[in-house]
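Self-study notes.
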Amino acid sequence: MKKILIGGGSGLIGLQLAQMLQKSGYEVRLLSRKKRSNLPYEVFQWDVKAGTIDPEAFRDLDYVINLAGAGIADKRWSDARKKLIIDSRVETTRLLWKYIREMELPLKAYVSASAVGYYGDRGEALMTEDATPGDGFLSESTKQWEDAIFSGPENIRTAAVRIGIVSSTQGGALEKLILPAKYGVATYFGNGKQWFSWIHISDLCRLFLFVLENDTINGPVNGVGPNPARLRELVAGIRKSVGIPGLMLPIPEFLMRIPMGEMADVLFSSTKVSSAKAEKAGFKFEYPTLMPALKDLLETKR
């Protein structure tokens, strides 16, 4: 049985991915800061500040997936919060590579989360994996993250999935947009023309599994669906899917900048991202278009 270790496996993506991997015949192990007994996987402790991981987590290991990282939009971006966002990604990555090197693990692959924030605000341009990083904190932090990801041993295949807007009713940006629509109000930010590159959470988990098992995939790969949507289109789709006529209310950028500060970049950056690399490698999306994806998410509560 193939053995896989997941860092940050107790979050929104990690728990669904762990379940998919287990159904696909993997022995799944999770890294956690605390001991857990309520999950159907072996859980091993790690302490990033202390620089320690339970060595048993690496026993006869075949693969590593790292999803660890503090939430980008959970709190206002103070200097301390920015440092935490970067350190929670970079230091977990460095710690994993430290153990992998010291134990001389013959891993088949190391696959990490990354983010389309790498590209920054790029307007109408279509971003492929070979694009240069953009400007601003989102780009800066993701660039530092990927520098750490691709600092591992050359003999281990390494890939980074640049995740877009994850479509799920259980967390993330979509959940926050669905909530006001249920009460008859659909909000969008600014003029609503900014591009949001989204992906159904099931397709994202399937993409991680695909990248894990496809020996031809190295480097960054965009974790987005093939049909990005403008924010106003996304909100209109949510309103239609929820089945409430409601109102379409724009929120001016300056009003969001007051409480959110620089973090409002998450809402107003336009990032139109290509899924061509994954598709050319043979990946097939189950939910390539917006309305069927929203319908499934609202029906299944995924």
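Second protein, same conventions, sequence then structure:
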Amino acid sequence: MKKSRLIAGSLVAVMSAGLFTGCSFPGTSKDAGSETATETGAELKNSETEAPFDLNDSKNKKKTEEIEKLIDNYFYFDEDPEKQEEKYYDGILAGLDDPYSVYYTKEEYEKLIEDDSGEYYGIGATVTKNVETGVTYVVKPIKNSPAEKAGVLPGDIFVKVDDTEITTDMDLDAIVKMIRGSKGTKATIEFYRESIKDYVTIEIERDTVQNYTVDYEMLDADIAYIKVEQFIDNTPEQFKEAVDAVEKQGAKAIIFDLRNNPGGLVTAVTEMTDYIIDDNATAKGAEKAGILLSTKDKEGNDISKPDCCSDKHSVDLPMAVLVNGNSASAAEIFTGVLRDYGVATIVGENTFGKGIVQSVIPLKDGSAIKITIAKYFIPSGDDIHLKGIAPDVEVPLDESLKTKVEIPHDEDNQLQAAIKAINEKISK
């Protein structure tokens, strides 16, 4: 899906920002471009003949004219040339038969850059749409955001935004677009609040929102808990601050929670794992020290950046990583690195299995395409695409917890299993 991503039965967005499940490869455009960022087009290959698709070929041209004539003669509704053009380019990428290769309009590309930057204008909340019921609700307001300050609570169900009623058939992006707006403007939002069985109307002034993708706290027995929601431009800075903070607070161990983390930027996850791993260490199965990731293009050429492991910082504490079937892409790189270097116990469920890399390439008119450019391999050399990473301690989430918006730590059986694994490490 292009405009929203299907994750754990819900469409998840950070207030007008769909989560980018692919890994952007570093390049010429804000770490989301590529070495071919000046290219302005792509060929569509015929799967049987491998010959380039040629729109000007007489056969293809005649078929196109035939279709256009039928539309002119019989199509009941008014045509939308702009929408037709957009869908035409959509079709070129759809013809690649790769769900991760998509076309972005100029507006969508601008939004993607904004989302990856970790800062935008809006009310500041993570929202989700349940695909079974169609209900859109707040997962949680972002820390220090206008939504949090105005009293929005986790679980609040969207009923109306200004004068527009929110219906179950509305697209999540359309809802979020209504919530976003210019700094200083106001949104009047009606919610249904289950805790009081009543409706509440809240006026929220839009402002700059810093997207916090990392949260942390100290659990009992001096075990630190660090939750990473996704990997975007500002995630490494927040991650390092979290690690430093818990170490200063006397953490004896760290649990990293990457459940339902859809991934993000390769540059972010390599910087974060570099902060944990000793630069001189060698991973199990690796050819040399300091390898965090290797990527190969379709010709088998290694296109990894050589300077990924050089920050001279490491973490020497027992660690665990919590994952599930929705831990994907960059989240799997993080998991694989810590597993292969033998510094963390993996707890939870088998990860998603997305071992390919996308690059977002801007076009001359301001639009862009995202295409799969390579396959990545974790330090051991394992290819995890379509296979994922199996946990060291397999623990399915209790069925009774799957419908909860937020799960208290003491009820979270997967977290409790991670704490148990960590305590066993500490006691050795």
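Instructor comment on the second fold: Residues 101 and 292 are 25 Å apart (CA to CA).
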